[in-house]
Amino acid sequence: MISVLSATSGAAVLGAAALSGRWLLHQREELGRPRPFPRISVALLAVLGIALAVPVVRRHHEEDRLSRVASRLVGHRVKVHCQSLGQALTDVGSELGYVKYGEDGVPEQQTTIKRDPCGELRKYYGGNRHRPTTDEIIAVHVLTHESMHMRGLVQEDMAECAAVQRDEETAEMLGATPGEAAMLARLYWGTVYPDMPEGYTTPDCRPGGALDEHLVTSPWVRA
Fold this sequence. Notes:
By secondary structure, this protein is mostly helical.
């Protein structure tokens, strides 16, 4: 969808430029009378091009912002792609985000986050971060979780535990204050993590457990 909008926007702008250029080269008719500048056609094409470019620019800006956050979590440059409307209409998967793996089992350095969580992320970093909704809390965690996969953690329970200990960091990078970020991490740990399906939780993910990294951002540190 974004590629179609981008191509259509470019075609409209090029059309406006072509009409203007044609007028400059042929400002008079064959009989010598001046040709009127096609201002209406040029204006309509220019407005259409700009209007179609807005969602393209916004999507690139959002993905760049999320990519910077994920890159800091991973430790090197990675890419976050937000699912487009067209991709969402044909998507039958239930996951909120995913990272593809190569034939060698190594995760790609790009993640796709589904359309709804990307929308919730947008609401979170652009809205009322001291009272996040459950969907916003989960969306922030999805970004952290998929970043842990790109970091090399293949097992879901290990990626999940590493993520809960870094959700506070993610929230801060998305614009939350330290207090708001700590609250979000605690809310995920206390209300969402216990209900995660089998394979995502482990008894080793706890204070003093085998997966406790003893980070100051761990939700149990501030509990």
